[in-house]
């Protein structure tokens, strides 16, 4: 489905103003944008851009949150993200225009660079766990209320809201909820607190790109200041990261002892989110994860 005449005219006007040059859209080509957004390669006289569209009423401020996340990562000067060109709304259509990145398959060189640069990003810290605003992970909102410890942040802003949604949808039962309560009571004994790190927050294999110049880019962030083990754990959930990525990361910023024994602990949050979005296929993995620690 192409763009409406009204949206095309609006985009041309806005982009002309932002880019300070007359811009004409010559075509659009659908590209993969996930299950939430429509995504297009926007072809113009000024080059290609990535255009993402969704419903303002269904996902309020989603693209504003994504823009903040991308710009926050960009300001660290550690790892590349696509530049945010324009974010706006027209009636109920929200849109985000980003720099277009020509991509290739990951190489060992690019994977090592991704590991090193992610480690450098993780060295950016705050005096709290959380973020200045709430945002999204997938199509679900996530609270980023500030906490003094990762322990309380992970329980109150990550696990508890997802457990409640799953229980209300009858995806988790009372025994499941009781087991999560047991986990909360002993969580602070399962890991060592360290200063917060700026984390991507949704770092699965589909949320990084490798450019034709072998340069890694992070996309679709769900940023907060959290425990960096969370990002590393999520890289293991669906694959897509090579051994050279992990070796380069550990060489640049070694993780605390026993980090690999906590992978299933931190992956409970994304698994709960997938349970709430896609159903009971993730339930057994969640139950096994909880039982591992209680």
Secondary structure tally, helices: 10
Largest sheet, in brief, is: 5 strands, antiparallel
Count of the domains:
2
Radius of gyration equals 20 Å
Mean pLDDT: 96
> Structural class, judged by helices and strands?
alpha+beta
Question: How would you name the CATH homologous superfamily of the largest domain?
Answer: Aminoglycoside phosphotransferase (APH), C-terminal lobe
- Examine the coordinates and then state which fold CATH places here, giving the name of the CATH topology of the largest domain: Aminoglycoside 3'-phosphotransferase, Chain: A, domain 2
Structure overview:
The chain is an alpha+beta fold and 294 residues long. It has two domains: 5-99, 2-Layer Sandwich (Phosphorylase Kinase, domain 1), CATH 3.30.200; 108-293, Aminoglycoside 3'-phosphotransferase, Chain: A, domain 2 (Alpha-Beta Complex), CATH 3.90.1200. The chain is built from ten helices and eleven strands. It has helices spanning 5-19, 62-75, 108-122, 150-168, 174-186, 228-235, 243-252, 263-266, 268-278, 283-293, and strands spanning 25-31, 38-44, 47-55, 84-90, 93-99, 135-137, 140-142, 197-199, 208-210, 216-218, 224-226. The strands form four sheets. The protein has a five-stranded antiparallel β-sheet with strand order 1-2-3-5-4, with helices on both faces. A two-stranded antiparallel ribbon has the order 6-7. It has a two-stranded antiparallel sheet with strand order 8-11. A hairpin with a 2-residue loop joins strand 6 (135-137) and strand 7 (140-142). Helix 3 (108-122) packs parallel to helix 7, helix 4 runs antiparallel to helix 5 and helix 9 (268-278) packs antiparallel against helix 10. The longest helix has 19 residues, at 150-168. The protein is globular, with a radius of gyration of 20 Å.
């Amino acid at each position: 489905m192409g763009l409406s005449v009204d949206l095309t005219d609006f985009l041309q006007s806005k982009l002309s103003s932002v880019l300070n040059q007359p811009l004409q859209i010559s075509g659009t080509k659908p590209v993969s944008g996930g299950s939430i957004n429509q995504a297009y390669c926007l072809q113009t006289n000024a080059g290609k851009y990535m255009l993402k569209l969704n419903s303002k009423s269904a996902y309020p401020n989603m693209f504003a949150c994504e823009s903040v996340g991308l710009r926050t990562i960009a300001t660290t000067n550690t790892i590349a993200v696509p530049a945010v060109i324009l974010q706006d709304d027209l009636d109920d259509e929200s849109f985000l225009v980003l720099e277009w990145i020509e991509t290739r398959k990951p190489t060992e060189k690019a994977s090592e660079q991704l590991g090193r640069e992610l480690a450098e990003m993780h060295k950016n810290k705050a005096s709290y766990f959380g973020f200045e605003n709430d945002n999204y992970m997938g199509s679900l909102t996530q609270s980023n209320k500030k906490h003094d410890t990762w322990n309380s942040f992970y329980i109150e802003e990550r696990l508890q809201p997802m457990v409640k949604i799953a229980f209300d949808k009858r995806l988790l039962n009372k025994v499941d909820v009781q087991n999560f309560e047991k986990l909360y009571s002993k969580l602070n004994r399962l890991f060592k607190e360290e200063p917060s790190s700026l984390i991507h927050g949704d770092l699965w294999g589909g949320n990084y790109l490798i450019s034709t110049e072998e340069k890694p880019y992070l996309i679709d962030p769900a940023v907060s200041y959290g425990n960096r083990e969370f990002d590393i754990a999520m890289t293991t959930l669906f694959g897509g990261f090579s051994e050279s990525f992990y070796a380069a990361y550990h060489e640049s910023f070694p993780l605390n002892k026993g980090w690999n024994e906590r992978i299933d602990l931190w992956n409970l949050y994304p698994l709960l989110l997938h349970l709430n979005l896609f159903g009971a296929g993730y339930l057994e993995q969640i139950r096994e994860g909880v039982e591992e620690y209680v």
